[in-house]
Amino acid sequence: MDPSLREVAGTGDTDALYALIRKDPYMLEHIDQIPFIDTPLHIAANEGQIKFAMEMINLKPSFGRKLNQDGFSPMHLALKMGHTKLVLRLLKTDKDLVRVKGREGMTPLHCAAAAGNSNLLFQFLETCPECVEDVT
């Protein structure tokens, strides 16, 4: 990925994102063609950049389900880093993101349960009751 895009995702600069898109309208499409990659959404999720993450998932919803080279989706990373508000915003955008199987078949629901985060677990089950059917 372009280092400039990595930087704007990490800092949450949506204006700079659109400046990069003006230079290369296919930039996000090229990233989407790579099977396992840290997308700009992964980077924003890791850094807790809520506004940027929401902009990115609106532009490229497929990034929400994409796994990086370590086997984590953006929601997995946001959970791992303790960015609960971002996790809940992603959940509100697409409830099925909680069902994305990552490394070792773990879903964000499994990660919340393993971490003992009962509040988040309740939110997941309330929003996506069918996620209880997912097994590792």
TrEMBL record:
ANK-type repeats, residues = 70-97, 104-125
One Pfam family named in its UniProt record: Ank
- Where is coiled-coil annotated? none
Annotated SUPFAM superfamilies: Ankyrin repeat (SSF48403)
Transmembrane helix among keywords: no
Q: Which SMART domains match?
A: ANK
Q: Where are the transmembrane segments?
A: none
Alphabetized, the UniProt keywords read: ANK repeat
- What's the protein called, per UniProt? Ankyrin repeat-containing protein
Q: What species does this protein belong to?
A: Gossypium trilobum
